[in-house]
Amino acid sequence: MPQLNPAPWFFIMVCTWLTFALIIQPKLLTFVSANPPSSKTTTTHSTTPWNWPWT
What we know:
- The chain contains 1 helix and no strands.
- The protein is mostly helical.
């Protein structure tokens, strides 16, 4: 069964992952996001509990 022979496919997979991890990923991580997170303070809203009629 030639499908079970990992020799050519394992090498292709390793080359693909090394290319992604060493070349493509660092280039993508250097880009600055178009909408950086702002430093707003989060506000908490005070809510009143609901009065359920069956409790």
